[in-house]
Amino acid sequence: MARALVNIPKTARRGDVIEIRTLISHEMETGYRPGPNGVLLPRDIITRFTCTYNGVEVFSAELFPAMSANPYLVFTTVASESGTIALTWTGDNGFSQTETATIEVA
Amino acid sequence: MRLPGAAALTLLLASPLGAEIRPDERRSDFHQMSPETRAMQTDDTANPGMLAVLDGEALWRAKAGPAGRSCADCHGDARITMRGVAARYPAWNAARGTPVGLAGQIDICRADRQGISAWPAESRERLAVTAYVAHQSRGMPISPPGDPEMAAARERGGRLFTARMGQLDLACAACHDDNWGKRLGGTPIPQAHPVGYPIYRLEWQAVGSLQRRLRNCLSGVRAEPFPYDAPELIELEAFLMQRAAGLPIETPAVRP
């Protein structure tokens, strides 16, 4: 399991725009880089990131080899109701990781 | 007449290196970074070095070796027992009769207490535990130990710092004492204080040690880099920590 740092406000007022910050540990090996033996290292990147808010997708991103290692993604959404925010990263070699957080909307 | 100009150039090239940075002018390279990079370092949820610190925390508690012992079994809660430790390293190791850096001390602990081999230099695990231990000293002033043996090591490190080397015939001091604050190409020249190691360097896209950074500079002046954990690198580190005495630790720092 890769290590991830997620920053989601625990509470918000209804209608507030909230900022979600995510950082995940991943090599993001481009597939263009030769290893010590001169042979290209196979590509190993995260290809997709999605954020669902109570099961509804509110943000998604496609990632490509030009993305840095340990990708840092920041985006905003509107706090509509209390519930669960789930963040999922998927990628090469079956990489898949989900982090969840709960938010209290008053 | 071009002679006076040529004579002046010769004088510049041959001139001895300037004085050290005045203590009141010493400051972390943090202040020369862009606002974006500074914000990345100060926000623990945006600082990618924190991923290494979290890895280190897990390794600190992981039992290893034939004795099945973890770092925490001897040292307990690192937040208390490791506070201020990184500010004192490199330190004199009387049993071995050498100065030892923080990562070197972790190697010694693994050999003597856990009975297992050291992690390779720049391995993820070694950097992670070093970052975790050093992170406990964040905000504390660098305070090098006063052992007389360390003074001798520091003096050797200081001689290396001012020795011109490599095909470009540059000493560390030629940039970092004499020309800090100016630019080399497009890059600001920092004072080069080792306040935040292991650092997350954006150019590396990874966490790396001070030794990796020193080896970078050595190959930059076209000198042959000292191998990892060479006594010269430890002595340079000891000198640099003395030079940075009083500046607060920033581990894990982010650097461009």
Automatic annotation (TrEMBL), chain A:
It holds the Pfam family SoxZ. InterPro entries: Ig-like_fold, Ig_E-set, SoxZ, SoxZ_dom. Gene3D superfamilies: Immunoglobulins (2.60.40.10). Residues 9-101 form the Sulphur oxidation protein SoxZ domain. It comes from the Bacteria. Coiled coil: none annotated. This is Thiosulfate oxidation carrier complex protein SoxZ. It comes from Enterovirga aerilata. The gene is soxZ.
